[in-house]
Design goal:
- This protein is α+β, with helices and mostly antiparallel strands.
- Helix content is 38%, strand content 14%.
- It has four helices and four strands, in the order E-H-E-H-E-E-H-H.
Length: 129
């Protein structure tokens, strides 16, 4: 059983990150949903979470992870040296999230914003909820 990643479907950085994860996840461990979509909202409600477009959310083995913790846990399952990034989990969450929040708060300015959620290609459509 895999994990689910909830992401901001209007964020160019977030959409590029999803494409990157798909490329480095040949075992298709991850499935995806935008936070703005019906399935994303349903999952957030199920876990008692508010819509937070400034956080990537990972649901893995019945637990919900946010921000830098989600990113590091995602990296742990990717191919290549990305697995090694997980060692940063030893850095205290408040310090990690300082960096995460800085990028999250500037991502639209730096990377832009889409007018609508991305539409996955037919070959990866099955990985989206």
């Amino acid at each position: 059983m895999g994990a689910i990643i909830l992401f901001d479907g209007e964020c160019n950085l977030c959409n590029s990150s999803v494409q990157f994860i798909i490329k480095h996840d040949p075992l298709a461990y991850f499935r995806f949903s935008s936070i703005q979509g019906a399935e994303g909202k349903k999952l957030l409600a199920q876990y008692g979470e508010a819509d937070d477009l400034n956080s990537v959310i990972l649901i893995e083995k019945g637990k919900l992870y946010r921000k830098s913790t989600a990113v590091l846990r995602i990296c742990r399952h990717l191919t290549g040296f990305w697995k090694l990034v997980y060692f940063l989990i030893v850095v205290p969450v408040p310090i990690r999230n300082l960096f995460y929040n800085f990028i999250a708060n500037h991502r639209y300015k730096w990377f832009g914003k889409k007018q609508a959620c991305m539409l996955p290609s037919p070959e990866i459509q099955r990985r989206f909820l």
